[in-house]
Design a protein that fits this description.
The protein has 339 residues and is α+β, with helices and mostly antiparallel strands. It has helices at residues 2-18, 22-33, 38-44, 54-90, 109-123, 137-140, 172-180, 222-237, 290-295, 312-319, 333-336; strands at residues 127-128, 134-136, 165-167, 186-195, 207-217, 243-250, 253-262, 279-288, 304-311. It has two domains: 2-90; 109-336, BirA Bifunctional Protein, domain 2 (2-Layer Sandwich). This is Phenylalanine--tRNA ligase alpha subunit.
């Protein structure tokens, strides 16, 4: 894998060096760093890497990406200066004309938050797995220990296409698909859009995004879950962040908990942002229920695991101190250009 990454880096740097136009630099960026690029392909092949090697490989991928991005930025800056100098030499500029502002777009707050979450977990040896937004009732509910008469399956709560197909209400269904492959151990996160029949207000939307994580291996305990999520919280909100777990109930985990993080505005002393409690609720988690393991063909006597799920919009709202979720979807340029 290291030789492959070195080869990708060498090829990318060579192509950048030989580029003579900005559009070629963009093609190189897409070819190596895009969703279907070379480095993304390496990340998707993480499942074939030994579990103990994944953190090291994830770090090497991040370092390779950073090196390519740095060289691309230098080449782009140099090329833009050359283009500008050529234009200044060849054009007569009327300095009395009003300037033209070049409006360049950038990443959405949700995208920035997702890339940060993916960076943290890929660095811990996880792979990023995507699944279908239209799911069967079995994968969205039954395989997650949610029986046919559960209230969550009511049409007032869930967008059903027909009796068998629906818009997924959680990305946990992607985890079930991975478990059924029985390629253990599993260390994955599943980001994606989910759908629920909610009224639109400052904290709810019928369409939003989740990032759910799953680890299955021998001898996994709640201590592993706590350590992983504590490290995630420190990476995301700062080194001084503390975590607190409160008992809860989820059908697909047992025991289950909700996790709070210490308020990163007041350091846990209590302020308007945390409503005076010093803590902010961030995600739900727990140990994978034995029934869920059994239904996916995994022996709960030999294997155990933990799962967690966090709303991506919630991370963006907290991290950037946004007080209304609707702002993320209204595409108001005055709001988006702040990020």
């Amino acid at each position: 894998m290291k030789e492959r990454l070195e080869q990708i880096k060498a090829e990318a740097l060579k192509q950048i060096q030989n580029s003579d136009a900005l559009d070629k630099l963009n093609e190189i960026r897409v070819s190596y760093l895009g969703k279907k690029g070379e480095l993304t392909a390496v990340l998707k092949s993480m499942k074939d890497v030994a579990a103990e090697e994944r953190p090291k490989v994830g770090q090497m991928v991040n370092e390779t990406r950073q090196e390519i991005e740095a060289v691309l930025a230098q080449a782009k800056e140099k090329m833009e200066k050359a283009v500008l100098e050529a234009r200044l030499q060849n054009e007569t500029i009327d300095v009395t004309l009003p300037a033209k502002k070049n409006n360049v777009g950038h990443r959405h707050p949700n995208t920035i938050a997702l890339e940060e979450v993916e960076r943290i977990f890929v660095g811990m040896g996880y792979e990023v797995v995507e699944g279908p937004e239209v799911e069967t009732d079995y994968y969205n509910f039954e395989a997650l220990n949610i029986p046919a008469d559960h209230p969550a399956k009511d049409e007032q709560d869930t967008f059903y296409i027909n009796g068998d197909f629906l818009l997924r209400t959680q990305t946990s269904s992607t985890q079930v698909h991975e478990m059924e492959k029985e390629k253990l151990p599993i260390r994955m996160i599943a980001p994606g859009r989910v759908f629920r029949s909610d009224e639109v207000d400052a904290t709810h939307s019928p369409s939003f995004h989740q990032v759910e994580g799953l680890v299955i291996d021998r001898h996994i305990t709640f201590a592993d879950l706590k350590g992983t999520l504590a490290e995630f919280a420190r990476e995301l909100f700062g080194e001084d962040t503390k975590v607190k777990f409160r008992p809860h109930h989820f059908n697909f985990t047992e025991p289950s908990a909700e996790m709070d993080v210490s308020c990163f505005k007041c350091g846990g002393k209590g302020c308007r942002f945390c409503k005076g409690s010093g803590w902010i609720e961030i995600l739900g988690c727990g140990m994978v229920h034995p029934n869920v393991l059994s239904m996916s063909g995994i022996d709960p006597e030999k294997y155990s695991g933990f799962a967690f799920g966090v709303g991506l919009e919630r991370i963006a709202l907290l991290k950037y101190e946004i007080d209304d979720m609707r702002l993320l979807y209204e595409n108001d340029i005055r709001f988006l250009k702040q990020f």
